[in-house]
Amino acid sequence: MFERRIKILLTVLAGFIVLLLLRASWLQVVQGAEWERRAADSSRHVTDLETSRGNIVDYRNRIVAEDAPCIDAAVDYRAIDPDAEDSKEWVRNEARRRVLARGPLKGSKDDRTLIVDQEIERMKADWKVMWETMAKVSGKNLDEIVGITETIKRRVEMRRKYVWNRKFEAAKERHDNEKKEPTPGWLRWLVDDTKSPGPQIDSFKVLVSEQTETHAILHAIDNDAYLVLDKLRERCPGLELKKGTRRS
Fold first, then answer.
1. What CA–CA distance (Å, rounded) separates 122 from 119?
2. In angstroms, rounded to a whole number, what is the distance separating the alpha carbons of residues 229 and 205?
């Protein structure tokens, strides 16, 4: 009786091992090329590199125009559009950081959440002051500054939609190129070869690098503007005075 149970147990174990070997063979032999391609695609990414313009010279090789170093007033995109869904986590983290800089968060979970929410509103008020200050030091009106930020939003959104569409088209092409031969029933049961309806465009979540980078609002600011804006950097998260170039 005992030997019979051992034989049954060994038979069941042998059956599981055979199934695992068949599954492994299917993945490595039949679908090996597909998984290799997916692994290569996952490690490949596109990076945009900034280029610099060369000098413009006259017929005597004298420099007529060249790039000169300057300081640009730039703002993180998440501060430009703080109400965007992809910006909310960064905004909340910055608000929490500001609160913790003044002391530890105390109280219940709801109390701490309320404190952070109130700090977010103060940050938005500080950003409003930042835009007004930029308009003042640049000699522009506030509508012009808002126009610059709206242009940045449109450009980033166009870039995001472009990447979104590219990923969807690539996924759709891979799905359409899959083998269409019918699979035997026993093999579908073994490898779970269920046909998917294909990629859905709403299932793609895309975050492009421009949504986490700073964008220049004022180019080539003078020393007076630098000193005024530098005082706002600690108060206004996302504000950065960074090196740039201007044509002279």
1. 5
2. 35
| pLDDT tens-digit readout, 48-99 | 666 666 777 777 777 666 667 889 999 999 999 999 988 999 999 999 999 9
Q: How far apart are CA 48 and CA 162, in angstroms?
A: 14
pLDDT in tens, 113-161: 999 999 999 999 999 999 999 999 999 999 999 999 999 999 999 998 8
Beta-carbon contacts of residue 239 (< 8 Å; ≥ 6 apart)? 73, 74, 75, 76, 79, 130, 229, 232, 233
Q: What pTM does this model have?
A: 0.66
Q: How far apart are CA 50 and CA 117, in angstroms?
A: 38
Which of 222, 207, 212, 98 has its CA nearest to residue 163?
Answer: 207
Between CA 68 and CA 51 the distance in angstroms is 15
